[in-house]
Amino acid sequence: MIDLTDSAVNAIKSAISSSTHPASGMRIMVEAGGCNGFKYRLGLAEEAKPYDTVIECGGVKVFVDDKSHEHLVGTTIDFVMALESPGFTFHNPNATSSCSCGKSFS
């Protein structure tokens, strides 16, 4: 299961409502790369793909493909307004290490 904080839910709702393209949720993916081997990738999505897990939290849909889902089980996603790096943060219990920016992990 992936959890979203209220702040993350509000940020996603705001992004969907201000998008110029049709969107019904947010896609979260894990890809090879970044400082530690894997990186998070986010974007608005119109609909789920056949191989997606769809998670609903606070009225927001999150689409996660099967390969990414195994890396994200138990993750809590937050949205913070920090001066140095505002944006989404990931509290991932599967990560053995992460970089200081919080966008990549191993």
Written description of the protein model:
The protein has 106 residues and is α/β, with parallel strands linked by helices. The protein has one domain (3-97): Hypothetical Protein Aq_1857, Chain: A (Sandwich). Helix content is 19%, strand content 40%. The protein is built from 2 helices and 8 strands. The strands form 2 sheets. Strands 4-5-2-3-8 form a 5-stranded mixed β-sheet. A 3-stranded mixed β-sheet has the order 1-6-7. A hairpin with a 2-residue loop joins β4 (52-57) and β5 (60-65). The longest helix is centred in the N-terminal third of the chain and has 13 residues, at 6-18. The protein is globular. 25% of the residues are buried. The mean pLDDT is 87.
